[in-house]
């Protein structure tokens, strides 16, 4: 008698088990683990992994998709709650956004790998789905920002949010050093490079947003 096919719910549950195993290994090691290790951690055969993901990179882009999904889910209500007084918007958003980023888990480490590592070996369809999801989430959030604050012209909200993300990722990469390099930065004269990301991010975001919502505005 043939093996019974998994239901859609069972397939999704197994997919989530694989993602959970990959996430756990990535956090423990700080690098992308081999597919064989992910299979062992999930209690599955290596071949089973390829029924759900064609490459290791596809697994980690799926984790990145999940992380972006959680960020957008927090971002939309945060934008809707921005103060109506334009002069208060920049600081309010910067503080709320910095807290969201601090709670974003693996988003920034995985995003830093995306262009140089993950996307290089990603099949076309998962790549298209990933990019389409990002574009849709960004457009939706940008439209909400414009509707709530009166920001114009059309597309300005999307542009501001894209700039905010680029600033965030760039700042994180600039201030995230390997352990050996961080130890080196304790040398005299190098302390200017040891800024704290969590402290610098809200300051940088507020300055960016002040270009769109000046503090002197009424």
UniProtKB/TrEMBL annotation:
<protein>
    <submittedName>
        <fullName>TetR/AcrR family transcriptional regulator</fullName>
    </submittedName>
</protein>
<dbReference type="InterPro" id="IPR001647">
    <property type="entry name" value="HTH_TetR"/>
</dbReference>
<dbReference type="GO" id="GO:0003677">
    <property type="term" value="F:DNA binding"/>
</dbReference>
<feature type="DNA-binding region" description="H-T-H motif">
    <location>
        <begin position="34"/>
        <end position="53"/>
    </location>
</feature>
<dbReference type="InterPro" id="IPR041483">
    <property type="entry name" value="TetR_C_34"/>
</dbReference>
<feature type="domain" description="HTH tetR-type">
    <location>
        <begin position="12"/>
        <end position="71"/>
    </location>
</feature>
<dbReference type="Pfam" id="PF17929">
    <property type="entry name" value="TetR_C_34"/>
</dbReference>
<keyword id="KW-0238">DNA-binding</keyword>
<dbReference type="InterPro" id="IPR009057">
    <property type="entry name" value="Homeodomain-like_sf"/>
</dbReference>
<dbReference type="Pfam" id="PF00440">
    <property type="entry name" value="TetR_N"/>
</dbReference>
